[in-house]
Design a protein that fits this description.
Layout lengths: L1 E2 L7 E2 L13 E5 L6 H9 L10 E2 L2 E2 L5 H4 L3 E4 L13 H9 L12 H12 L18 H14 L4 E5 L7 H18 L3 E4 L3 H6 L3 E6 L2 E7 H5 L3 H12 L6 H5 L1
Parallel strand pairs: 3-8, 3-9, 6-7, 7-8
Antiparallel strand pairs: 1-2, 4-5, 9-10
Helix pairs in contact: 5-6
Length: 255
């Protein structure tokens, strides 16, 4: 992935990138700012077109497929908790549209049975929102909206889930809640997921594979026993060994 190609500002945001994600993988991704983590997600989701290479999803080449078509099969949650829900619409309308990806507004005929289904699912968040289905989502807190985004994404049954530091903008209590829900949903629905995190401890603890990125490349991967044996100190040491410089982000190291 090259930005401003052929100019003095040329930037190779991704290079030498080969990554195979297996069904059922839960991959955590760590790296300092500018490592290319979000660009990787942009290319997978379709919000950025790769300068070279190809992208496959379930053996189908989606390299030139537009983002809105990929969104039916790829769920993505951003750091900003306001991006995943429509604040000017009611919770039940948000739920309806999410449960029928590709369905065009207006939505008619929300049956009592469907409303009961939404109530049951929202009640799983344990936030009392099941009694507020007709309220506009803008009335909810950031933590509530991020939890709702997570729930709606899961209910759409995506083939791949992209979590882009989705708890980083939340206060510690809500961050812990959304992360717990994330782990529960991934296990329950056997989701294939990739999670960018600024927290090395989370990257080590969760998931079955860990990737470390730097300067647009995957420079280290661990899984199985190798991943289980990792510590923050070992990861920092590995980065220094591979790059001959210190890991730059204290936020990542100390989280």
């Amino acid at each position: 992935m090259i930005y401003n190609a052929g100019t003095p500002d040329e930037n190779r945001a991704l290079k030498n990138m080969t990554l195979a994600v297996r069904e059922g993988d839960f991959i955590t991704i760590i790296g300092s700012n500018g490592a290319g983590k979000t660009t990787l997600f942009d290319v997978i989701a379709g919000s950025q077109k790769p300068s070279a290479g190809r992208i496959f999803l379930n053996d189908v080449d989606i390299t030139r497929q537009p983002e809105y078509r990929r969104a039916r099969r790829i769920g993505r949650i951003y750091q900003n908790p306001l991006l995943g829900t429509a604040g000017g619409m009611s919770l039940e309308d948000n739920m309806m549209i999410s449960s029928r990806k590709g369905f065009k507004w207006p939505v008619f005929g929300l049956t009592a049975k469907k409303r009961e289904y939404f109530q049951r699912e929202v009640a799983r968040l344990d936030m009392g929102l099941e009694n507020r289905l007709r309220e506009n989502v803008r009335m909810f807190s950031g933590g509530q909206r991020q939890a709702l985004t997570l729930l709606m994404m899961v209910l759409s049954r995506p083939d791949l889930v992209l979590l882009d530091e989705h708890t980083a903008a939340l206060d510690p209590k809500n961050a812990a809640l959304v992360l717990r829900l994330t782990l529960d949903f991934i296990r329950e629905y056997r989701l294939t997921a990739m999670m960018i995190t600024h927290n090395m401890s989370h990257a080590i603890t969760y998931g079955n594979r860990l990737l470390m990125m730097d300067a647009g490349e995957i420079i280290f991967e661990a899984s199985g026993r190798d991943k289980a044996a990792l510590t923050i100190e070992k990861l920092v040491s590995k980065f220094h060994e591979l790059r001959a410089r210190d890991f730059e982000s204290d936020e990542v190291r100390l989280s």
